[in-house]
Amino acid sequence: MNALAAILMNSRVRALPCGDGVAPFLGLWRPGLLASSAILVDEGQGAEMKRAVAVLDDHLRRAAPGIADPGLLGFDFHLSADGPRLIEVNTNPGGLLLVLAHQRACAGLWPHAPVHDMAPDQVEMAVAKAFAGAAAKVAIVDDAPADQFLYPEFLLYRQLFARLGLGGDVIDARHWQGGFDGVYNRLTDFALSDPSHAALAHDRAGGRVVLVPDVSAHAAYADKRHLVTLSRQPACAAWVPPTRMGDEDWQSTWAERRHLFFKPTLGYGGKGAYRGDKISRATWEGLDPTRMVVQQLVPPPVVDSGFKVDIRAYAVRGQVLAFGARLYRGQMTNFRSDGGGLASVFCHHAG
């Protein structure tokens, strides 16, 4: 298949069919996990996202002095005619090692380089250092990890930590028994408030284990209320769509809904979020404005195959290690689209 024969739908994003390049390998395959295409972006858009991440990360950190380093952050963008626009920030962004696996599987198919500067091995070393810190033995922790859709990535992290002599056991947080001084924390119980996580919370409070990201990270970096602040910062506003709290003139949002996106302040993974042009009156009336932010809608670009595309920048302390994409159909990002899923991102050099 001639990858360069993909139809250019706009000047921002392009699909590069992988053919049989992405196939069941390393035990990673699950339907909808890895996309059958990679994504090609313009060189200028890649550079602009790197600049945006550096500035946005700096503002978030200065607003949260004394908060433990979150390790890896994910900055999710939609690429628009006016440049990249930040959709949200994630404190435990999944998919990085799977994106690197996708990149390796697609290597050599096209005369394009990945949009990030670091080789996959370098990225892996950097992210392992970010999660391990000073720990001598690290566990990957989640609830029922083998049942998680991204469990294949847990196995990749286990291999990476083991290769570095850092352990890397995958452990169910509900059955925590200690024995590790570091945790790569994949839980969505961000505050460790669930009673089933009491043992892990006890060891963390006693200084026997360090969690990355720590319990304070989600509130400091991923709370959607930060989007309101960032959108009003002169240095950041060029990359962050206008965003306001829901209780700032909530009644007007129904009339404006087709141009808005409604997001819960403490939400994650798209849960409880609604595109305004899809929301029903009953659902809108059932939302609590004090717990929502309202963001100007920036539609994701659509490639020739019909997939919508989100771009994620994986960053450590403001430096982008790698870019990944998610290809999907439907209202929200998902892993249910045949041929969609996580994808590597390559760069088109102008001229």
Topology:
Blueprint: E1 13-17, E2 37-42, H1 43-62, E3 73-80, E4 83-90, H2 96-106, E5 113-114, H3 120-132, E6 138-142, H4 151-163, E7 167-172, E8 182-185, H5 198-205, E9 210-212, H6 217-222, H7 225-231, E10 243-245, H8 252-256, E11 260-264, E12 274-275, H9 281-286, E13 292-296, E14 308-316, E15 319-328, E16 341-348
Parallel strand pairs: 2-16, 6-7, 6-8, 8-9
Antiparallel strand pairs: 1-2, 3-4, 3-14, 5-16, 10-13, 11-12, 11-13, 14-15, 15-16
Mean pLDDT: 88
| Strand and helix order | EEHEEHEHEHEEHEHHEHEEHEEEE
Structural class: alpha+beta
Overall tally of domains:
2
What is the approximate shape? globular
How many DSSP helices? 9
Cα radius of gyration in angstroms:
20 Å
Termini Cα gap: 24 Å
- Largest sheet composition: 8 strands, mixed
Low-confidence stretches: 1-11, 21-26
Helix content: 25-40%
Total strand count, please? Answer: 16
How big a fraction of the residues is strand? 25-35%
Characteristic terms for this protein:
single chain; 351 residues; alpha+beta; 2 domains; 4-stranded parallel β-sheet
Write up what this structure looks like.
It is a single chain. The protein has helices at 43-62, 96-106, 120-132, 151-163, 198-205, 217-222, 225-231, 252-256, 281-286, and strands spanning 13-17, 37-42, 73-80, 83-90, 113-114, 138-142, 167-172, 182-185, 210-212, 243-245, 260-264, 274-275, 292-296, 308-316, 319-328, 341-348. It has 351 residues and is of the alpha+beta class. It is globular, with a radius of gyration of 20 Å. The strands form three sheets. Strands 1, 2, 3, 4, 5, 14, 15 and 16 form an eight-stranded mixed β-sheet that branches. The protein folds into two domains: 3-222 and 300-348, no CATH class; 242-296, no CATH class. A hairpin with a 2-residue loop joins strand 14 (308-316) and strand 15. The protein has nine helices and 16 strands.
